[in-house]
Every structure is written in C-alpha cells, then in structure tokens.
Amino acid sequence: MASLVVLERHLWLTLTDIKDAERTRFLDALVSSTGLFGPAVKGFSERYSEAQKASQVMRHFLPKRSSSGSSAHKRAPSTPRPTKPAKQASQPSPAADAQRQPRANKRFPFPQRQGPRPSAAPHSAHPLRFKNPDSLAGSELVPQGGTGDSSQSKTRISFSFSFVEILRISQHNHEDKFQVTFYEERNFQGRSYECTGDSGDFSSYLSHCHSCRVHSGCWMMYDYPNFMGNQYFFRRGEYADCMSMFGMSNCIRSCRMISMHRGSYRMRIYERENFMGQMYEMMDDCENIMDRYRMSHCQSCHVMDGHWLMYEQPHYRGKMSYFSPGEYRNFSNMDGMKFMSMRRIMDSWY
C-alpha cells in the first residue's frame, strides 16, 4: 500500500506546476487515512492564498509606467548620409555563410520558433479550490486565468476518483462477485459456511446442507465431493429448502462457480460420438432439438463461446450438465445421458 501511495503522489505532482521544494513537502508528508496527501494539501492552499494576497498588495506600491513620458523623448531627425555605389553582386561562398551564422545557431542547431510568441495569461488571485481537499476527489484547479471562459484565460482540471480509490473499489467488487452461504438446516438455520470460490468438499464445515443464499454469481452444486454426482444450477437468490426444490436425494457436498461471459454464444452439436453424424450450430436457446433439428439425441458437442446448460428432457427438464468452452467427444462417459434441450447462462443472471 505504501508503494501505491508514493506512485499516486508522483502521478498527481507531475500534473501540477509546483516548485521542487513544495513537491518535497508533499512527498515527505505522512500517510493519512483521510486522504492521499493528508494535511499537506491544506497547508499548501493557505500558503498559496497568502502569496497571492501579498503580490496584490505589492502592486499598489510599484509605480505605473507613464505612456506620455515615452513620447517626450523622441530622437531628432538625422541628416541623410551619402549613399555609396552598390558593389557588383557576387556569389557568396559556403565558408562565408557559415561565418555569418550567429553563435546561437551553432550552440542550438534546432529550428527557431515561427510567428509571434504567445502572450502569457493575466495573473489571477484565485487560490486552489478543492471540493474535497483531503482526497482531491472531484477537485477543480484554477492556477491561472481571469473570469473569462476561454481556454487561455482559465484552466480547469476535474477528477472523479484517485488511483488508490479506483484500485480499492475494483478489488472490493471483485471480491463480492461470487459469494454463497450454506446452512445446515432449512430456512437458513443452524451452522453456516460462506464460500467465495470453488470448494471440493465442505463436509468439514457442515455435516449437511439443506438451504443456501446465493448473494452473487452463478454456481453449479454437486451432491458428492470433488464435483461428482448430480449437478444443480444455482443463480442469485434464496433457497430455503434445496432438497425439495430440486428433488435431491442427497444434500450438497461441493460447489463450483461459473465465470461470467459477455459476448456471443456458439455451440455445435453432433448426432454421434467423436463429432460424427449430423451437425448443427446453435447460437441461442433450444427447447427441443427434435422439433428444431429432427435429431433424436446428440452424443458429442463442441462449445466455442459461452457457458451452456444441457438437459436430458425437452423444455429444460430432467437432469442437467454444465458445459464450458471445450470439446466433448462422448456423452456416454457421463452416465449415458442423452440431452434434448440446451440453454445459455446469461450475464444478466449474475
């Protein structure tokens, strides 16, 4: 965390036009939980305001330059000098041109700036204004400029979040993305076990599981350890009696989270093993492959995009199986199941 704070301070200071002495004070400031620079921001704002007020006071004591005095000291007209006859033009040599070049061009062989120099913006007494000085969140810096709305007279830089805050928010959202709580008894009673990832066997935490709350994410539950046995799909919601709701003969023993997929869905189903026989490519849900493709069953598939659920009966009934992207050459290894309907796991379910 200390390295992130130092990195964020360097990033903020590179956007400003602060002197090296002031930068050292910001970098050496103690790390505070209230903000990135802590009380150093308040002290710098106060010093900046005092310096602006002092400069305004000094302007009242400085004499103003009079425009009439310059017109009084005019040069007298000089007598014209006799002109010399023009010499015959000759082709200058390269060596002579090199000697005539000014010394600045020899030291700095860079192209000179063309056109008039930009005029500096008028000095302003506006101090640094912060909506939240402690964290610099939603800040508005007005280091120079007047009251006009042009970009040359007023410079504004607005920020919504700092780097450390964005990192903390993204980490918090990532941790809360998948979470489920299991309970021993029905109606969320008895001992509980909170899970945020795959769990091959949580029998050491609970003797049995009859209810659960899925706070976020989509999960596949298994009635045997190590992701074996019958599969059950759980999405966000409350399940007061899992066994009666899904017709389980055994309670949940292991679980696996399903990562979110955003994009297109593609899957090819085959009538026979090893991708043989009739082939159809699917991109949406199918309630009955017999009605749509005139297939009695499918024995292999190739999931190219997305996550899918396949059911042994039409209209998404019966036993189910979860299929992630990959090749599945033979369904006979899965207890001889024959699938008749398929559906996609949508990102809106998370």
3D architecture notes:
By secondary structure, this protein is α+β, with helices and mostly antiparallel strands. The chain has 3 domains: 2-49 and 121-165, no CATH class; 179-258, Crystallins (Gamma-B Crystallin, domain 1), CATH 2.60.20.10; 266-349, Sandwich (Gamma-B Crystallin, domain 1), CATH 2.60.20.10. It is 24% helix and 23% strand. It is elongated.
Summarize the structure.
The protein has helices at 2-14, 20-27, 40-61, 67-72, 94-100, 103-107, 163-175, 242-246, 289-293; strands spanning 179-185, 189-195, 211-216, 218-224, 228-234, 237-239, 254-258, 266-272, 276-282, 300-305, 308-313, 317-323, 326-328, 341-344. It has 350 residues and is of the alpha+beta class.
Secondary structure layout plus pairing:
Elements: H1 2-14, H2 20-27, H3 40-61, H4 67-72, H5 94-100, H6 103-107, H7 163-175, E1 179-185, E2 189-195, E3 211-216, E4 218-224, E5 228-234, E6 237-239, H8 242-246, E7 254-258, E8 266-272, E9 276-282, H9 289-293, E10 300-305, E11 308-313, E12 317-323, E13 326-328, E14 341-344
Antiparallel strand pairs: 1-2, 1-3, 3-6, 4-5, 4-7, 8-9, 8-10, 10-13, 11-12, 11-14
* Low-pLDDT segments, ≥5 res: 67-74, 118-176
By helix and strand content, what is the structural category? Answer: alpha+beta
Radius of gyration from the alpha-carbon trace, in angstroms: 38 Å
Distance between the termini: 31 Å
Helix content: 10-25%
- The global form is elongated
Helix-strand topology string: HHHHHHHEEEEEEHEEEHEEEEE
Q: Would you report the number of β strands?
A: 14
Side-by-side strand order of the widest sheet: 2-1-3-6
Beta-strand residue percentage? 15-25%
**Domain tally:** 3
Number of helices: 9
Q: How can the largest sheet be summarized? A: 4 strands, antiparallel
- The overall average pLDDT, rounded, is 74
